[in-house]
Structure prediction request, 227 residues.
Amino acid sequence: PPNGARAEDAIAGDHPFILQSDGRGWLFAAAGLMDGPMPTHYEPHESPFCNPLYSQRSNPTRQLFARRENPYNPAESDAYPYVVWTYRLTEHHTAGTLPYLAELQPEFFCEVSPELADERELEHGGWATIVTARTAIEARVLVTERMKPLVVDGRKVHHVGVPYHWGTRGLTTGDSGNDLFPVALDPNVHIQEVKAATCDIRPGRRPRGKALTELVASYPRTVGDEA
Prediction:
C-alpha cells in the first residue's frame, strides 16, 4: 500500500484479514481470548497421545461438565485404544431429505484400515460396534486402504472414521456418530469437541435396551476434569 493509505486501502492483498480493529489478523491476540495470547497446539480432551510440545496435554481453559450423563474416557486407557473422528459426506451434506442422494449413501458406516479389521475381526460389509464412555453405536464396516494407522512418537494407533450424518429420522436412518463424543467445549466460542476422541471397536451389532447400558457401564469412565 502507498504511504498514507487508510482503512481498506492500507491492507495489502496478501495480508491476513479478520474483524480486528485494525482490519488485520493477529498472531499475538492481547485481548478477547480465554486462552492465548499466542496460538498453540493442544490435544483433544480424549487423546491417546501426550502433547508433543509440552506437558499440558489438553487446553487448560476448556469447559468440562462433571455430570453423570457426561462421563469421559480416561486418558491413555487401554480400554479405548483407538481414535474416532467424524466428517461429512458430500451426498448427505444438507441434503438428507433428497431420495436420489440418500440412495447414494443408504446406510450408516465406519471406515477402518485392513490392519485394524484383522486386529478386531471386522468384516467388510458386516457390523461393528463402536464404544465410548457415553454410549455405543453400530455401523456397517468399510475396510479401506485410505485409513492409514497413525504413528506418533514411535507408537502406532489405529483410527475409525465415522460420518456425522444419520439419526432416527429421515429417509435413511441409523445411529448417530456424534453420540459417541463428550461435552467438552472450546473456551472461546463454546463449540463441542465432536471431531476426535478415543474409542473401542468390536465386531457385531450393538445390544439394545438394558444390555446396551450394561455394555457401556462395563468400560471405565471418569467425571469432570479427572480424564
